[in-house]
Amino acid sequence: MSERWSVGGLVQSAAVLVVLVVVAGSLLGQPLLLSYVETGSMAPTMEPGDGFVALPPALAGDVGPDDVVVYEAKQLNGGGLTTHRVVEETTNGYVTRGDANPFTDQDGSEPPVTDGQIRAVALQVGGSVVTVPALGTLATGLQGAFGGLQRTLSGLVGTDVPTTAVGLLLLGGGVALYGLDDGTGRERPTRDRGAGGTDARVLVLVLTLVVVVPLTGSMVLPGGPQDLGIVSAESDSPAGHVVEAGTTEERTYQLSNAGLLPTVVYLEPASEGLVVSPERTVLDGAAERDATLAVSAPPETGYYVRSLVEHRYVAVLPLAVLDSLYRVHPWAPIVAIDAVVGGGFYLLGTVLVGGGSVRLRRRSRGAARDSWLGTVRRRLG
C-alpha cells in the first residue's frame, strides 16, 4: 500500500471525518450519528466532552423510560439541544432529567418533551450508553476554530459569513491539502503516473462537496419539528391559540420557499390531536402556499402542545420516487438526491478533467510576487 493510502493516513482521515460529522450535527441542530455532552448533568453516565452514538428517532423506535434522548429544549438553559434521560411518559409528553440532577427538567419551566422535539436517541448496549471519551472536546475545539475564522471573514467582507460555509471552506481546504502535501513539504506523487501533483479526481471531489453540502443544508435547515401551543378552554375565543375543550378547529400553516429551486414539502403530525392537509406540497422558487392544520383540544382544560414535522427536498426526483423513498425513511430522499446530483457532478467533472494528475509548482513568495507584478505591468503597459 502506498504512503498516500497508508493505514496511518486512513486512521487520521477517519478521525477527522468523525469530528467533522459531530461539528456538522451541532451546527445543523440535528445530531448526525454522533453527538456529545457539554455539561456534567449526565455524570457519571457521560462526563463533559464525552461523545455517544446518536440514533435517529425513526431508527431507534419508540421512546420510553430509561432512554437517553437529545431534544430541543424550549426553556432549559435558554433553549437548544439537551441530552437527558427519560424518567416518565405522560399524556402530555416525556419527563426528563439529567442523571446528576436531583430534579426533573419539568420541575422547572421546561414543559413535557414531545416526540417532535426529540432529535436523536443515544445507543445503549446492555443498558449502558455507548460513549466515546473526549470526542466532544475535539469537536468543541474545531467548532471554535470555525467561529474564529467566521468572525475574521465577516470583518474582512463587512457582512455575516455563515458558520456552515466556513466549515465547508476548511473541509475543502483540508481535502485539497491532503491531496497536495504529505507533511514533509514535498509534492505528493499520484498513484498511477508517479508524477508530482495531486490526482485530478481529488479536486473534482472537493468541488462536488462544495455543491452537495449546501444542497443538503438547504433541505435540512429549513425543516424539522414544529410545535403549536394551544389552550384548551371552557369556551371558544378569538385568540388563535385558544380552542374550546373537546372540539377541533382549523388553523393555517404557511409554507414558504426562500430559494430559487422548486422544493417538495412533506408535513406529518408528531403528536396526537393534529391532522395536516395536504401532506405534500410543491413550492416553486420564491413561492408561498398555505396548509391546513386541524387542531383538537382534549376535554380537560389546560395548556397543551401539538407537534408536526416538516421535511423538505429539492425537486430533483419525480414525485412518485420521492413518495416511495419518503415512506422508507425521511432521510432516504436526501441521500438519493445527493447521490444523483453529487454523482452526476463528479462523473461530469472526471470526464472533463480526465483521470490524470494536476501538478502545482511551489515557488518562493518573492518569485510569486514578482510574477504577479510582472503580469500587472504587462496589462497596464
TrEMBL record:
Annotated GO MF terms: serine-type endopeptidase activity
Alphabetical keyword list: Membrane, Transmembrane, Transmembrane helix
InterPro entries, per the entry: LexA/Signal_pep-like_sf (IPR036286), Peptidase_S26 (IPR019533)
Signal peptide region: none
CDD domains given in the database record: S26_SPase_I
Biological process according to GO: signal peptide processing
Domain of life, source organism: Archaea
Membrane-spanning residues: 7-28, 161-180, 200-221, 331-355
Protein name: S26 family signal peptidase
Organism this protein belongs to: Salinirubellus salinus
